[in-house]
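So, can you check this record?

>
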Amino acid sequence: MYKKNVKFFIILTILILQLVNGHKELFINLNNNNDYYNSSNQLYDYKKPFGYIKIYSESQLVDSLSFSQMIGKRVSIRSGGHSSCSFSLINDTINFDLSGFKRIKVDRYKKIASVQSGVLLEEFYNEIVKYGFGSTGGMCGGVGIGGIALAGGSNFLSPKYGYMIDNILEYKILLANGKIINSNPFNKYNDLFWALSGSGHGGYGIVLEYKVKLHEVPKYYYTNVIEIPLNNVAQTMLEIDRFINSTDNLNKRMSFDLKSIGSTTSNQIIILSFYFIDGTIEEGEREFKKLLKSLPWGKTNENYKTNKTFLEIVQLAPMDIDQHIREITKSRFVMNLNSTSASTFQEFLYYANSIIKEINNDSVIFFNQFYYHGGNHLLDNKYSSFIHRNNQSKYTVVFNCQYRMKENDYLFNLYKEHLNKILPIFGDTIYQNYPDDEIKNWQSSYYGNNYKKLQQIKKKYDPFNYFKNQQSIELP
């Protein structure tokens, strides 16, 4: 009876708020058994917010925050809903659905885009290319700006232009005290700007909008692919590193990723993608031929279209990720690429193949990736708290598997145990775009020596730790 009375009170309060403020779109759903919650990673189906509010405007957001605080509830924030650990859904919170924050405004003369948090990467890219621009960010179009922009954001242009956080000029953010402020490196909120630029899910407030520096892109980039045999993966990784370091400034002019994709319905295929991002098509082709010569085991595809637009390249990754699945994702920066770490990556691909052979009652997909961000040239950014910049952070490995059947949890728990054992071989620093909710020393893995300063800034702007999740910045 008590719970029913509480729900009745909350519903009545919402109706009053709607009538007083005229926000007809303001909607809260106190029934957790609906598709809004069930669309997330099913391994986290125990995460049940108290309810959610679909928000479309700044005034609604301020009112919703005030309402949540009035009834004694914390909030959780969801823009694209792709958090690998479902940090966008937190038990017993009012979940703010920012997917209605869709405005993109491009200033072609200043080469700046103002982008709201609910915009998906594909929507952002589709808009800016109309003006001849591109941007760093991610390669999965279905990911929301609101999550990826605070935690890094890397795509094939990053070796030249840095992470997405290196191209953010200003944040508009709602603080726990109900105030909306603009934070940039040159105003009185510059300390908050520094913290936001790399804190990821750190919990300083709700970012509504980003001002992003854009870059003019050519009509076409040269790109090509090489199919790699499984038993040559480790050699390929080491050869990529040698090739990148073979010529001055070559590390800024090209990008690579090595992808392994396998499933219960198709054989594993391993593709090395090459992108020449600073120079002519002819230069790109010459450099690719040099790389190909150093990989005699590689096989090219004569029918592959080598001249691609910015949009064609970022659309190579799938737009939609089927989230009605059970998904495990882990990632590490490769602190020292050597024969041991390269061989470990190759051996894990063999291990993933062995699991596929054991499954006959499920649809399973493995996606494993080794890719290049850039090296020491990304080191100097005094306006960012993001620590992963030097040559010990120029590569990342990502391990992802997706399956559907709950009865296979036991097998995939063994898979995860095996993965957790080998991850330290690559390093102990973690790319915030792929958070790990099982690691104990997350403070140093995400933030390194910046953590204490991040705590002081947290205390200044969220002194009662209202914005909180299991890995948000703690109060000092």
Remarks:
- The CA atoms of residues 332 and 430 lie 5 Å apart.
- Confidence is low (pLDDT under 50) at residues 22-26.
- The two ends are 41 Å apart (CA to CA).
